[in-house]
């Protein structure tokens, strides 16, 4: 089962936008939010979570269905 991936977007009374990414490892969060950040304008700051420093896990599975 894949990990749940979420974007939490908050807009305060002054129009400042905060995006919190959960469930993505490494720089995948930056790739996922890039177009949204570009559309919103200048990024004023960024706080990296522990997930940013974790490596994404890739799993490859082969199944032999020939019975042999």
Strand content range? 15-25%
Please report the number of helical segments. 1
| Main beta sheet | 2 strands, antiparallel
Backbone CA Rg: 17 Å
Side-by-side strand order of the widest sheet: 1-2
Helices and strands: which structural class? Answer: alpha+beta
Helix content: 10-25%
Run of helices and strands: EEH
Task: Give the tally of β-strands.
Answer: 2
Tally of structural domains: 1
Rounded to the nearest angstrom, the distance between the terminal CA atoms is 28 Å
Detail the poorly predicted runs: none
Mean pLDDT: 82
Structure commentary:
The chain is of the alpha+beta class and about 70 residues long. It has one domain (about 5-55). The mean pLDDT is about 80. It has 1 helix and 2 strands. The radius of gyration is 17 Å and the shape is elongated. The chain has a two-stranded antiparallel ribbon.
């Amino acid at each position: 089962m894949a990990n749940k991936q979420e974007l939490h977007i908050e807009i305060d009374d002054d129009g400042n936008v905060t995006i919190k990414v959960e469930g993505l490892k490494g720089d995948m969060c930056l790739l996922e939010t890039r177009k949204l950040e570009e559309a919103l304008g200048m990024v004023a700051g960024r706080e990296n979570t522990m997930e940013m420093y974790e490596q994404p896990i890739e799993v490859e599975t082969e199944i032999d269905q020939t019975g042999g």
